[in-house]
Amino acid sequence: MSIDVNQARTRLLAERERVLAEVAVLQDDLSHSIEESFDEDGNDSHLADSATETVDREIEQSLGDNAEHLLTNIDEALSRIDAGTYGSCVRCGKPIGDERLAALPYAAKCIECKRLEERG
């Protein structure tokens, strides 16, 4: 296995910054959409508009939750780099394939263990 941990750290930190920027935009959008859902009298807008705004807020919230989950995965990968365990499956201890780490630098499990997890 030929993992370049410095390159992995650089990629993870760049991805972390990208996700943090997305979270900031989502939070800004969410706060604006909540403010805009009320008219100048402080009343809710039209029922159809309210429904659309609710769906939009739920989508933004879901995207925010996914981003937070991704940040957790990135931070855990950075911790594994610091601990010297990056590139080893957290479940079985076997090496995580180079191709998997190239595609998902925050991968914590080898493909076999991830498949087992997804099957339940």
Describe it for me?
- It is built from 4 helices and no strands.
- It is an all-alpha fold and 120 residues long.
- The chain has a domain at 5-86.
Instruction: Give the number of helices.
Output: 4
Order of helices and strands: HHHH
The low-pLDDT segments are: none
Secondary structure tally: strands: 0
Q: What is the mean predicted local confidence, pLDDT?
A: 87
What characterizes the major β-sheet? Answer: none
What is the helix content? Answer: over 70%
Q: How much of the residues is beta strand, in percent?
A: under 5%
The geometry reads as elongated
Indicate the radius of gyration in whole angstroms. Answer: 20 Å
Q: What structural class do helix, strand and pairing data support?
A: mainly alpha
Q: Measure the end-to-end span.
A: 29 Å
Secondary-structure map with pairings?
Layout: H1 5-36, H2 47-83, H3 98-103, H4 111-119
Descriptors:
elongated, 120 residues, mainly alpha, single chain
Summarize the structure.
Helices cover 70% and strands 0% of the residues. The protein contains four helices and no strands.
